[in-house]
């Protein structure tokens, strides 16, 4: 019988620099998805998804456009690494 270990469900989040609950599954079916699951908390990922939606809507991005995908990938990395990322008009970053 397998026992529940809370530590198995935590990750040291690269955005918040603390142990937080991890994503239950990788967000992408590849090595990048595994990396994100192992280095980004569910909280930070959900905040990124909200920001990504705002960027897509404000900039009218098409997800079939390779340049739009490249732009979002760059913004995602900047956001998750606490770098300077593009912010939609009126956007207030989440407080740690």
UniProtKB/TrEMBL annotation:
The answer to whether keyword rRNA processing applies is no
* Gene3D superfamilies the UniProt entry points to: Fe(II) trafficking protein YggX
* Cellular component annotations (GO), alphabetically ordered: cytosol
The alphabetical list of record keywords is: Iron
What SUPFAM superfamilies would the database entry show?
YggX-like
- Recorded superkingdom: Bacteria
- An example of a Pfam family matching this protein is Iron_traffic
Which biological processes are named by the entry's GO terms? Answer: cellular response to oxidative stress
One example GO MF annotation: iron ion binding
NCBIfam families, alphabetized: PRK05408.1
Q: Which PANTHER family match?
A: FE(2+)-TRAFFICKING PROTEIN-RELATED (PTHR36965:SF1)
Q: Which family does it belong to?
A: Belongs to the Fe(2+)-trafficking protein family.
Functional note: Could be a mediator in iron transactions between iron acquisition and iron-requiring processes, such as synthesis and/or repair of Fe-S clusters in biosynthetic enzymes.
Designated name of the protein? Probable Fe(2+)-trafficking protein
């Amino acid at each position: 019988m397998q026992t529940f270990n809370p530590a198995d469900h935590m990750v040291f989040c690269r955005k918040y620099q603390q142990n937080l609950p991890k994503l239950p599954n990788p967000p992408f079916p590849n090595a990048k998805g595994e990396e994100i699951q192992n280095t980004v908390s569910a909280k930070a990922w959900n905040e990124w998804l909200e920001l990504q939606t705002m960027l897509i809507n404000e900039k009218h991005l098409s997800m079939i456009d390779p340049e739009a995908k490249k732009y979002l990938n760059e913004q995602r990395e900047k956001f998750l690494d606490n770098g300077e990322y593009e912010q939609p008009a009126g956007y207030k970053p989440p407080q740690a």
